[in-house]
Amino acid sequence: MRQDPATEGLQVYVVGGAVRDALLQQEAGDRDWVVVGASPEQMAQRGFIPVGGDFPVFLHPVTKEEYALARTERKSGRGYKGFTFYTGKDVRLEEDLKRRDLTVNAIAQSMTGELFDPLGGVKDIQARILRHVGPAFEEDPVRILRLARFTARFVDFSIAPETLALCRKMVDQGEVDALVPERVWQELSRGLLCQQPSRMIHVLVQCNASARVMPGWGDSQQVGDAIDRAALLNLPLASRFALLCLHTQDPQALAKHLRAPTECSDMSRLLPVVLASVNAPVMTPEHVLALFEQCDAIRKPERLMELLRTAQVVTKVSVVQWQHWLDAVLSIDAGAAARSAPSPQQIKAVVRAARLQALTTGFTF
After folding, report:
1. How high is the pLDDT of residue 79?
2. Of 145, 173, 187, 357, which is the most buried if we count CB atoms within 10 A?
3. How far apart are CA 7 and CA 111, in angstroms?
4. Is residue 74 over pLDDT 80?
5. Is the entire prediction scored with pTM above 0.85?
């Protein structure tokens, strides 16, 4: 690493995911930095911009990367916000690493490239094991969600038995009940976008957390297979969430509880409608137009096609054929049809009849 005037003379380390991913020879995302032995005043004097709330975090004056002062933390209440922090100049790097969640995320690298690994993270990376750093893991319920998400991303990693046992204990003690839905959604959505999202769900089921964080969710082998196939097909988040809710009695209620985006809620609500329609024993122009109307496909044709591609994950459906039918309906000039209506009261019926006629003309299997 090149010498940086802003950090020259400071004990600065890259920590966490960037180090882990480099050791796995994977593309790393944003780098997180920790500064040992410095004060907020020293950081400000060097041009760093303070942005931290609960503890001192600074933006580099040039790169805008985040630099946090080394800190320790102590549990002071329930949930993931129930902590007090200490960021004195006497906090050692090892103390900062000990507060992290997993050993593979508790490796630091100096500006010269030297690794600092007091907790055996490198060994666990080599063994492909996700292991909690220490007893402090159980103080933050978000770590259960993060652990589950990591299994979806790192599909050749397994969870240490003692770590899974600790997660079960945290659930049994009600620690996960303090999680706010927005935080659950943040981790859940990121996990759904990983390589094998079923592994994340499996971990939540294994540690009895799924019913707590996703109330009303319906589990099945088909759901796990479906979200993994959606990942393989690179379907968007809304499609993956809809498939996650495949056997959920009230997907809208779950989406509302999780504060999921509108497109995710809509897809989860409409996917059962689409599946029922495409799996109907008899297909007629009236049947097709009724689905278009239920899904508001005239105004939102792209959403319907995404719904059909999502349905294709779990059932046989010709997306090309449905696109042909949709194009036929969209080809109708609604304005012209409306002007031909005998009265304003009949406009809706006339436009619908024109669309139905377009479907009937080009209706093939």
Report:
1. 47
2. 145
3. 10
4. no
5. yes
